[in-house]
Amino acid sequence: MARPNQARLDLRALRHNVGVVRRLAPRAKIMAVVKANAYGHGAVTIAGALQSEVDAVAVACIEEALELRYAGIATPILLLEGVFEPGELQQAAQLDLWLTIDNEHQLRWLEEATLPAPITCWLKVDTGMNRLGVTPGSAPLFFQRLLASSNVRNEIVTCTHFASADDVMNQQTEQQLAKFDALPFPTLRSAANSAGVIGWPQAHYDWVRPGYMLFGNSPMLEPHVHAHGLLPVMTLVSAVISLRDVAAGETVGYGGTWVATRASRIATVTIGYGDGYPRQALNDTPVLVNGQRARLAGRVSMDMITVDVTDLEHVEIGSEVVLWGEGLPLAEVADNANTIGYELTTRMPARTPRIVVHD
Ligand SMILES: *Cc1c(COP(=O)(O)O)cnc(C)c1O
Description:
alpha/beta, TIM Barrel, Lyase, Ornithine Decarboxylase, Chain A, domain 1, 2 domains, eight-stranded parallel sheet, six-stranded antiparallel β-barrel, 22% strand, binds pyridoxal-5'-phosphate
């Protein structure tokens, strides 16, 4: 038997989730964010499946864009952080990559370049995230200079990014929107990440930029009605490879952090932090064994976890185990590992094969 670990990818769920975005933001174009290997799902697989579903995709850097272009993906691609050095501009123009312009350096490189074709530019304005983007005060001048450059295509999009849109009670989003709406020049606009799409209809504008929700997960701090229809794209599965009975008082795993309070049955599952399951997951983190809920018992090892299956029936060697995905929300596992679902899928190593199960 081959090692049973798989990150199963349901591309029907992916397309369904695009439909959710389209229903929530019917007038906006959709830019699917597929940076960091599509949050660990596999950028070529995901962008390939989305080609005819979305208007553009976005990645963090030119290397990620090249991977998609070399795989034959023809969708417009935005570089979310723009270029890191002027030499990248030639390739960006040749391959029709769109650029974020978020500082004076990037604008000057663009103004001074001799390019084979003009480039589509998104001007990023910092409305309060304080990470990237030009100040609202300097934005009009940046905009004028972009308009004046022969290296820039006419249709400029002004964009910004939210710091706290996952929290519908947080005033910061309204403050950011007020600054964004006050910009004194008419362009196409974009602000909404997944949390903006779900929680802030007034932030949809001309383009929405969802990432996380496309993979079937809600970024919202509280359950949100607009996120209810999302379906998980990745289901991480493994299997039981060993079973044993331990007496009350015995411990399980490194450091003996889990102590049996009664006679217990322990299943060993062949997946660990070397396969993308978080070592930070605490005792009692939920897992599904044969579709039934069980709980982590003992520390996560590199290649294995141990699960308390005392109360479950019909657990045997080879029983399927779901770590997250269908039947077990990613966010629930992330909560038990003191992190967010974004990090769990994004850190999935190449060691765990991605298998497309529904095309
Ligand atoms: C990553 C990113 C997004 C997507 O965010 P999600 O929370 O995954 O929807 C949108 N816009 C920018 C600028 C980003 O960096």
